[in-house]
Structure formats: C-alpha cells, structure tokens
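Margin note: ligand = cytidine-5'-triphosphate.
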Amino acid sequence: MQGRTVVLGVCGGIAAYKAVEVCRRLTDAGARVLPVLTRGATRFVTPLTFSALAAEPARTRLFDDPDDPIPHTRLGRRADLVLVVPATAGFCARYAAGFADDLLTATLLATRAPVVLAPAMHTEMWEHPAVRANLAVLAARGVTVVEPEVGRLAGGDEGAGRLADPARIVGVAGEILAARRDLEGVRVLVTAGGTREPIDAVRYLGNRSSGKMGHALARAAHDRGATVTLVTTRADAGPFPFPTVVVGTAEEMRAALRRRFADSDVVVMAAAVADFRPKAPAEGKWKKEDGVPEVVLEPTPDILAELGAAKEHQLLVGFAAETEDVVARAAAKLVRKRLDLVVANDVSTPDAGFEVDTNRAVLLDSGGPVSETPLVTKAELAGIILDQVAARLGRAGRDETPREQT
Ligand code: CTP
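Resulting structure:
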C-alpha cells in the first residue's frame, strides 16, 4: 500500500466508528488516505478524527470549499482505490442509480479507480430485495463488496449486516491495490462456450463446453485493466462488468467477431466452435411420424483461421483441445491458423477441459512450448495465459499504470 492513495468514504451508520480503525490501519500500511464524510457520517464521527489520523483534511462538502472548487474530480483522479466504510443502504441506492448529490457519490462517478464497499446495516435492510438489487448492479459494474458478518448490531439486535472486520476490509483493499494492471487500455475480445447448430426449430448439435475458461479469461483481463468484450454462447452466465454479446451458432460468432476485429488488440478464442453443422436445418419441428431424419453435415467456417489470415496488429490466441499427441497437434494448429499463442489441453482426463473448474495446459508459440501448468483452476490458467499475452505486448512487469496526478 506504500505510497498509494485511498479515498476513504464514510457514510452515516453506527459502524462509522469502525471506519476510524480502517483509516488507522491504512495509514499504518503506508497508504495516503483522503477521507470523505457524508453529512450522515458527521452525526456519528467527526471530520477531525479522520483529519488527525490521516494527516489530510477530511472533506465533507461538494460545494463551498474555498481551497478546492472541484473536489470530486480532483479526488476521483488521485485515487488508486475508493473504499466506502460503512456503505449504508441509502448510499448504495444512490450510487447504483448514479446520483452525484454529495461529495462521495460525485467522487465515485468521477473516478476510474477500483471501488470497494463494506456495507453495514440491520438484517432486515441487508436482506431487502431493493438492497440486494442495488448491490447486484454495483457488482456487475465491477465494484467489490466486502460482505458483512453475522453478529451484534445496533440496539442489541443480532443477525447478518454487521460490518466486516476492519482488518479484513483493509486486506481486501490491499489485494486490489496489489493486483496487476498490466493490460490497462488493451482491447481484448474473448469468446466462450460451445456453439449450437440447429437441426430443426427446436433441436441443435452442441458440445460440452461450459464457457468457464473463456469467462475466467474475460474476468481476469478486465481485472488487469483491459477493455474487454466477451462473445459467449452462455446467456445464463454473468452478469459481467464489461460488454457481453450472446450468440448461438458459429456463423453468429463469426459475424460478432468480424465486426469487432479491427478495433481489437488481442483475440482469445476459448469458444468450442462446432466444426460441423447440419447442412439444411428444417424450418419447423421434425415429427416422429416423418421417420428418422437423415442429417447431412457440412463444415462450419474456421473463425480463428479466418482471423489469422486477416490479422494486422492483433495478437491471436487459440485453444487446442486434444486427446492424443497434444503438443505436436497444437503446434500444427498454431502454424495453420497463424496464431501467436496456442493453449493446448488434454481433454481425455476427467479433471481437465470440459465442464470442470480445473484445467492442465501447455502453452506454445512458434518456438515451441513456453509454459506447462500442473492441474490449476481455470482462473489461475487465465492468469498464466494473460502473463504470456502481456509479455508479447511488451507489458510484462508493468504492475501498475501511474494515474494522473493533479
Ligand atoms: N475454432 C474456430 N472455428 C472453428 C473451429 C475451431 O475458430 N470452426 C477455434 C477454436 O475456438 C479454438 C481453435 O480454433 O481456439 C482450435 O479448435 P479445434 O476444434 O481444437 O481445432 P480444429 O482446428 O477444428 O481441428 P480438429 O478439430 O481437427 O482438431
């Protein structure tokens, strides 16, 4: 945390007194803390407490600060992280709705820094559908929520809604600040899931891909600062904090990628695109009394090979799901499809590949294998693949991009 700037928002709830402890822990860890108190917060704790601990003025007003005519943009730009402790139900509603009617909400709209909320409220409020919906909206936008604990609440009540332990809140803030931002500004297009090729109006030819690997890649790239677009066949996944396009067939996936290819820097084809599709799918539903249908197949377009042939500045990453001769076959695919990197996995073992949460892979480029993983989670494998991508973009070791200082 040394030298990093944390805007610490404090809202009006009894847990505001614990924000004092959070402030102290952040400064002890070397962070520069800029406290922002809502009007409600000042009913519970004083700005002076935070000013004294942070050695920075605690701000409370959007207007009328003679030293700082536009404090929200200044704070928003200086922040490496905005942390709100406690986040009350009313604050979450205003933030989710995009209000900018006090210094804290205006700062949150004016920042590109990651945001962490630590909610605290009575159990009935915490479980209210309106609060759940607001937090779901915020989580989908990439906000991290440190879930409250079960315990004693104001007025002697017991239940869920008690502010998470200050040490845990500071721990989460530290993890986010330590996270790599080495793909800041890189435009990454990721595909996920298996395509569905219609046989008739209700049936399709599909495969066992769950989309988990592609979704993990999209999330990891987003967390590292990339501008991500996900093209997935899984309408049931998400919500994701980046634009998502849901497609069905290989042809639809091809069209979605073609539209976005010129404006992409990296394309990761984790989707299991069907290699064959029914040549003439029936328009209606095939009836049993018509007899057993003869389904004639034709090849689908090889999307990745087409992108390989058309690529200019783009870095192309493909997958190779193999059951034997894994490395040699993957290397052949790399050449045939003009890829920069291929992720080869042996899908013959039950713990790797389709449907499961783990994978084992060999990464190859034109010089041969560059990395071989043991059995890892798909999130971990996503990180290993993106390390290779970052290295090829000349961004390895770039742990953070300095933010604009004003
Ligand atoms: N792929 C694609 N379009 C297709 C088929 C595959 O873009 N019609 C992509 C996949 O997303 C994957 C890579 O190509 O990134 C490898 O796919 P795979 O099916 O393993 O290889 P194929 O080249 O189709 O060869 P084969 O099935 O014979 O192993």
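Residues 129 and 144 are 19 Å apart (CA to CA).
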